[in-house]
Amino acid sequence: MRVAIVGATGAVGHELLRVLEKSTLNLDELQLYASPRSAGSTLSFAGREITVQATPEGAIDADVILASAGGSISQALAPAWVAGGAVVIDNSSAFRYDPEVPLVVPEVNGEAALRHKGIIANPNCTTAIAAVAVAPLHRAFGVRRMIVSTYQATSGAGQKGMEELLSQTHRVLHDQTPQAEVFAHPIPFNVIPHIDSFQDNGYTREEMKVVWETRKIIGDESLQISCTAVRIPTLRTHAEAITLELERPATPEQAREILRAAAGVEVRDDPAGKLYPMPLTATGKYDVEVGRIRSSLVFEGGLDLFVAGDQLLKGAALNAVQIAEYLQAQGALRGRVTG
After folding, report:
1. pTM to 2 decimals?
2. Binning pLDDT at 50, 70 and 90, where does residue 138 land?
3. From CA 172, how far away is CA 118, in angstroms rounded?
4. Closest alpha carbon to 320 in 113, 97, 117, 158
5. Are 112 and 327 in contact (CB under 8 A)?
6. Which residues are catalytic?
7. Rounded to the nearest 10 degrees, how much is the dihedral formed by the CA atoms of 278, 284, 285, 286?
8. Strands across the sheet with 237-246, in order?
9. How many CB atoms lie within 10 A of CB 258?
10. What is the pLDDT of residues 164-211, one digit of tens each?
11. Burial class (CB in 10 A: 0-12, 13-18, 19+), 33
């Protein structure tokens, strides 16, 4: 089994390396690709150094390609990768809304990955984290309406976003005026209700991604969703406040029981003991933390909950590797026979 990472030197690329080291994926050869300026550098994997190569214009001789180099590169090169025989698991938004491309969160709709035609899309990080928590409740009680407010870490803007948080916080703490390059406004000690570009309906594209992608992953186009996406000055874990109107009334106790049995979920829900989801505790975890589960004061029989998930893990690298692991477990990744 030959695996390649395209975009290996970025924030998600580094996490892919860490996740692959712990993965059940059969891996005989790992190839690393990035932009020409990163070519020749080395990255550590499983106790050895691997040289980063410049991403080629054509096919890559690999069985699985984990792509995290941006939508324009995936759009331009993924067809050639597929033509060369690879299964592409793409972390960009390039193919998410293509009806021929599965959009997959393995705990929710893993079977959709088996219908791929060479490319499988990894969801937006905010959507993936929410879907892990909401899908089990949707299966049990039916979700009619979903209102989401996000608290998104700077890692959502990549390595440069995290660096801007750290460097500009340093400026503020030393009585210097912070500057904004990655974000629309200075991020230290601030929250910015603006992620991605504004659309004609007044929502940002980030907010609409939650709408479009949640419906596709859960498989329910009738689901009504509204989202407000906010950037906050944390490093790498997204949090979300979610309100659900349900078709069949549920109590918080019933919801906790469902979520405790759900794959990829850790229930942290003891307000009296000050136990609830937080970026501080969810960072570095594979599971999505879910807590503050309570009856909605707006929708009778509905629920309110709070979710926190590592944006670079379940929101990106981990989910991509889990898709590959799912394909392998289903016998859909066989590698190449040589001899």
Report:
1. 0.94
2. very high
3. 48
4. 113
5. no
6. 125, 238
7. 130
8. 224-228, 143-151, 237-246, 303-310, 288-295, 265-267
9. 17
10. 999 999 999 999 999 999 999 999 999 999 999 999 999 999 999 999
11. buried
Q: Are 196 and 204 in contact (CB under 8 A)?
A: yes
Six-digit token pair at 213? Answer: 């992608």
Q: Label residue 336 by pLDDT band (50, 70, 90).
A: low
Average pLDDT (290-311) is: 98
Q: How far is CA 227 from CA 126, 127, 147, 224, in A?
A: 10, 11, 6, 10
| 32: Cα within 13 Å, side-chain hemisphere | 23
Q: Which two tokens stand for residue 218?
A: 């859960």
- The pLDDT of residue 333 is 86
DSSP code string of 69-101: S-HHHHHHHHHHHHHTTPEEEE-SSSSTT-TTS
